[in-house]
DNA sequence: GTAGGGTTAG
């Protein structure tokens, strides 16, 4: 696997930018074709270089308007490198040409490149300055905002956009005091300044100020009401949002945007599962089958209204109602199709999803990705592969879905294959990729690969809770329990039960009973609520450590204190606990009273204990049950035979051996609860 | 043809 990481490093060294954007944009780059050839197994789209097809002299003299139009079109369609080539080859440029290029880099967050152009540009206008400031603002760090502020303070003249950009910059990183100072000192405010303050307050949870500003603002535009409503909803103030809509929704000034506001609220109700109220709002919007085109200024349902309502039904798992609306729509967009397809993929009706997908006019990458994850959910790797191969444009989510799908379906080698291919094709893994690959390492019990991925994690992403959980699980499964504990101890946020389950489970499987129980106590003290998984580990620890009373106590506490319904795994552990204390009758009684069907672990625990405590009668019951559950397994025969031998019951032993031969049972080593040494 | 604030999905 070392070559995998080396490949990744090489890609990053050759072109850190292209490693991010990959083949999607097919930019010309000298190092790229070689890498593509390495990985070209037929699934990689062919590369077409457009740089050579652009005549160098195509933009001369007064044709600046066409040049600028061309560049902005290339940037809008994601072809930044092509735009740069056109820019470099142009004989004449004006400030708009430069600004467009700066804008392209700002949109991609490639600040160093944007700044280089900005510094090279002699005839800067106010837009150049505003663009560069917005570049720093969009990076949301305090270091960047200071640089943005520096430009703002030093620019020769400012317009309203400059002020608004700075205000929203402060608002986004929670520095509302500074936003307010700017707002109060700006010479002239626009409706955007007010809207920026309102969203700023709402992003920072200051609901009352947002409402106050909304009511105080001298004029409102299309965005004002929607900004307030969506912000209120994000703050969990759904009823307040509803009240605002009732109060302001009928005012003429907001009328043109009323659909927008209604749509926001419909989505808000949907998020909270309040489908009926959402439908009530939806029904209040006039429906004109011939109209509904956005921008006609009338208050009537548009495609987003339909999509939002369908989304509510999909979230509430009411696919029939969702489909009913979908079929009624006169004009659908990609979103409508995708949400309906994902609705079917989720109830797990991939067949119906496929039917819709095949009827869809222009499936986009998200549609293909939905079909991939749907196929994975029903365990069909072949179908997922088929979609993956056929899709015209793959993105990071496509790769992640394949890797996660292979991992979930326990085809770990397949997952590694896709991960390797992904790196070779220049797609940069994100935290989702790395988390899946760590689970792959756990599945393969491959510490070496796991450590390499850990290194990749350290270099590429800030480890979040799920990544740390995956690391803990990986290290503990690979036997490095101390390394797992180090990661656990270094986690600042310890409120996720999965982290605790991973660590306690790790201790449990390594037989560190004391540490497991200590951590379990600490977890409860920190008010992290244990789950049924926690109790499986805890009960197993009690069984292995022979802590009979503790085991009984924990089982009881799980049911009464935490209201967790015991599963067969808990009963298996409890039976084991009781058996280790030699109370076989009690164990048998427990098995008879179990609400679920006892499995091999339950009977295995009993049978193992029967041999230790020489209870032939119960051993026969347990062995028979095991033979029924797993007719091919030699384990119950072996154990029962050994017990007969221990007890000197030679006749029974011989009979059993004959039966075993008759049933063509072949002894297989490797059952942890079987001691076949004297067989 | 370039800059600032607002709805729906994984």
UniProtKB/TrEMBL annotation:
InterPro entries: E_motif, PPR_At4g14850-like_plant, PPR_rpt, TPR-like_helical_dom_sf
Matching Gene3D superfamilies: Tetratricopeptide repeat domain
PROSITE patterns cross-referenced by the UniProt entry: PPR
PPR repeats: 94-128, 159-193, 258-288, 302-336, 364-394, 395-429, 464-494, 496-530
Top-rank taxon: Eukaryota
Record Pfam families: E_motif, PPR, PPR_2
GO molecular function per UniProt: RNA binding
GO process annotations (BP): RNA modification; system development
Record key words, sorted: Repeat
Entry's family note: Belongs to the PPR family. PCMP-E subfamily.
The name this protein goes by in its record: Pentacotripeptide-repeat region of PRORP domain-containing protein
Source organism of the structure: Carpinus fangiana
């Amino acid at each position: 696997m070392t070559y995998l990481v080396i490949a990744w490093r090489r890609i990053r060294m050759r072109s850190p930018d292209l490693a991010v954007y990959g083949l999607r944009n097919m930019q010309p780059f000298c190092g790229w074709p070689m890498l593509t050839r390495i990985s070209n197994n037929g699934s990689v789209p062919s590369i077409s270089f457009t740089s050579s097809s652009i005549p160098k002299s195509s933009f001369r003299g007064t044709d600046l308007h066409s040049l600028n139009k061309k560049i902005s079109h290339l940037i809008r369609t994601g072809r930044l490198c092509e735009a740069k080539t056109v820019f470099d080859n142009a004989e004449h440029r004006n400030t708009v040409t430069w600004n467009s290029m700066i804008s392209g880099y700002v949109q991609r967050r490639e600040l160093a490149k944007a700044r280089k152009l900005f510094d090279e540009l002699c005839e800067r206008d106010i837009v150049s300055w505003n663009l560069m400031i917005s570049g720093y603002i969009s990076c949301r760090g305090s270091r960047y905002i200071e640089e943005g502020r520096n430009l703002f303070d030093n620019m020769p003249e400012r317009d309203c956009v400059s002020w608004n950009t700075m205000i929203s910059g402060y608002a986004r990183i929670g520095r509302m005091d500074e936003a307010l100072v700017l707002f109060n000192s700006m010479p002239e405010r626009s409706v955007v300044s007010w809207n920026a303050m309102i969203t700023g307050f709402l992003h920072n949870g200051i609901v009352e100020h947002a409402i106050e500003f909304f009511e105080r603002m001298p004029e409102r535009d299309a965005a004002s009401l929607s900004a307030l409503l969506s912000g209120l909803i994000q703050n969990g103030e759904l009823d307040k949002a509803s009240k605002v809509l009732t109060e302001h929704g009928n005012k003429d000034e907001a009328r043109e945007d009323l659909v927008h506001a209604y749509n926001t609220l419909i989505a808000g109700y949907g998020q909270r599962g309040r489908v009926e109220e959402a439908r009530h709002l939806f029904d209040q919007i006039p429906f004109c089958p011939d109209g509904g085109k956005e921008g006609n200024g009338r208050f009537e349902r548009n495609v987003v209204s339909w999509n939002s309502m369908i989304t509510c039904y999909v979230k509430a798992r009411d696919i029939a109602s969702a489909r009913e609306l979908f079929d009624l729509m006169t004009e659908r967009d990609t979103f409508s199709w995708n949400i309906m397809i994902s609705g079917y993929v989720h109830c797990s009706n991939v067949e119906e999803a496929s039917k819709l997908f095949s009827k869809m006019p222009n499936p986009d990458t998200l549609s293909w990705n939905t079909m991939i994850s749907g196929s994975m959910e029903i365990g069909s790797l072949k179908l997922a592969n088929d979609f993956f191969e056929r899709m015209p444009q793959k993105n990071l989510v496509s790769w992640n879905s394949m890797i996660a799908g292979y991992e979930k379906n326990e085809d770990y080698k397949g997952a590694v294959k896709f991960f390797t291919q992904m790196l070779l094709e220049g797609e940069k893994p994100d935290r989702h990729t790395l988390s899946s690959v760590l689970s792959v390492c756990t599945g393969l019990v491959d510490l070496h690969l796991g450590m390499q991925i850990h290194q990749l994690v350290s270099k590429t992403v800030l480890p979040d809770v799920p990544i740390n959980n995956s690391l803990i699980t990986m290290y503990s499964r690979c036997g490095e329990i101390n390394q797992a504990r180090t990661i656990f101890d270094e986690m600042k946020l310890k409120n996720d039960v999965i982290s605790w389950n991973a660590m306690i489970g790790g201790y449990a499987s390594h037989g560190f009973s004391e540490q497991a129980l200590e951590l379990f106590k600490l977890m409860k003290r920190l008010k992290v609520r244990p789950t049924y998984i926690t109790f499986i580990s805890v009960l197993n620890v009690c069984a292995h450590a022979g802590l009979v009373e503790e085991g009984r106590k924990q089982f009881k506490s799980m049911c009464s204190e935490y209201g967790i319904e015991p599963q067969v795994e808990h009963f298996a552990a409890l039976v084991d606990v009781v058996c280790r204390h030699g109370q076989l009758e009690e164990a048998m009684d427990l098995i008879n009273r179990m609400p679920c069907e006892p499995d091999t672990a339950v009977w295995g625990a009993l049978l193992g204990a029967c041999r230790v405590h020489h209870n032939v009668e119960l051993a026969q019951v347990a062995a028979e049950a095991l033979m029924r559950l797993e007719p091919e397994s030699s384990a119950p025969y072996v154990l029962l035979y050994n017990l007969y031998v221990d007890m000197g019951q030679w006749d029974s032993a011989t009979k059993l051996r004959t039966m075993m031969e008759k049933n063509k049972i072949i002894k297989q080593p490797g059952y942890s609860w079987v001691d076949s040494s004297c067989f």
